[in-house]
Each structure stands twice: as C-alpha cells, then as structure tokens.
Amino acid sequence: MAYNYQGGPAPSYSASAPSAAPPAVEPEQAFLWNVFQRVDRDRNGAITSDELQQALSNGTWTPFNPETVRLMISMFDKANTGCIRFNEFGALWKYVTEWQKTFRTFDTDNSGNIDKRELKTALTSFGYRLSDRFYDLLVFKFDRTGRATINFDDFIQCCVSLQMLTQQFAQHDVNRNGWIQINYEQFLSMAFSVKL
Prior knowledge:
The chain is mainly alpha-helical. Helices cover 52% and strands 7% of the residues. The chain contains eight helices and six strands. It has helices at 29-39, 49-55, 66-76, 86-106, 116-125, 132-142, 152-172, 184-193; strands at 2-4, 46-47, 84-85, 114-115, 149-150, 179-181. The strands form three sheets. The chain has a two-stranded antiparallel ribbon with strand order 1-6. A two-stranded antiparallel sheet has the order 2-3. A two-stranded antiparallel sheet has the order 4-5. The longest helix has 21 residues, at 86-106. The chain is globular, with a radius of gyration of 18 Å. The two termini are 24 Å apart. The relative contact order is 0.18.
C-alpha cells in the first residue's frame, strides 16, 4: 500500500515546531518551584494530570483539553509514574511557553484561536505540505467548540500528534519522497505504537 501524505515536496522531518525538550536557558528555579508548589495541590511532590489541567489556561476560560494534558505528561514523565515531578516540570513549563509563543505567532487575527488559514500557515512553516481537504480534517478533529477553529491546547495536541505520526512515517520513508509501501499489519503497528 502506498500513501502520499502531501500535495508537494516532502516536509522536513525535523519540523521547526517546539520539540519535547526545546533548547533554551531554564527559567529561574525559584520561580518554577513557586509555580510547581501552587499546582501540586495535594503537596505530594508530583503533579497529576488533573492538577495540571486545572493549572493550565487555554485562553478561553475553559479547562485545558484532558487529552492534551495526558499527552504532555506522557512526554515529560521520564519515570513513567503518570505524574510530573519538579525535575521534569521545568522542561514542561518551557515546552508550554514555547507553544504559547508559536500559537500567538500564527493567531494573526488575535482571536485566541487558530482557523484553517492560520493552521495552514503554521504547518507550512513547520515544513508540511498538506491538501486543503486534510486541513479541513484537522480542524474538524481538533475543534472542540464547533466554530471551525482550534484553541491553544488543541493546537498543541494537533501539532504534536502530526509530528509523532510523521516521525513514524519517516521511519518507513527510506527515499524521503513522501511515499511508503507497507502492509496492513505494519500500518497497524505504526498507528498503535504512536504515543498519542
């Protein structure tokens, strides 16, 4: 089975979206400790997905998407405890901050959400060349409000999901031309091995 995920040249598999550990100077430890303590409501030294969800803001006065929170915890939970400890919190904080900057860059109308045109601009700048029909699918999948827009938290989930799926695809794209040939079981293995 061959599948081309784009309509143009193959994207760079090292898209410029924020990575799981963006390079930069760590924010001040005392500030981070203060934030960590406020988020860790039960004072057990670890932040659960529920605590993190309550602490994060997506800019719409609604709770952060629980799937996005779960995804971020799984990315930064190096001990596989289902929680974030302080030593992991700094990287998570930086990650969310970088995504917030990225989101604001592409929210060109300052509406607090990303529409199809803005999403296309963002993903194109990350190196993706996708059809308008696929952008419609992304907006449909990640729009929880029914307004054909994507909020900040869903934008993170959309971009991270696309990045993880692209990395899986890239492992089979030996010619780096945007085409792979796999059987059905390989496809299922790819889909189920992605940590979404």
